[in-house]
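Example (one chain per record):
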Amino acid sequence: MIDPKSGTPYVPTLHYFLGGYDIYDREETLGVELSQYDPNISSDRNTLIKNYFLPRHFDSSYREKYLLFICLKEALSDENYNFQAVFEDDPEEYSSLPSYWDEMKDPRVFFEDIYRLISSEWALEIAQGLRENPNDW
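Predicted structure:
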């Protein structure tokens, strides 16, 4: 599938799920805002996902949402997937997460919560994607 916004192939990774939490050059605004939440606490994770992840994808097409869903489903089905690595800072990238996020007790749970919420919130888009062959996109 070609990303309608960039014109490049759309191949999501788990890093796509963290874009709403990128505080690079926004440490004094978004960074301070996110510091109010502890991703190790279930209610805070739900707030983070509902307020910072879901709105970022409000205008995404059903195809984009479906491919994100499949990406996450595949990672969660792998018992050995290193979810911690997704949160590690890469000094070569112009992005950063809140500093304490790389110390999350169980990063898999963060993604499990995203999966649970998008399974419900995006149910219609996922169903539409399931009815089609993504190879035709």
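Caption: The helical segments are 27-34, 42-53, 62-77, 83-87, 107-121, 123-130.
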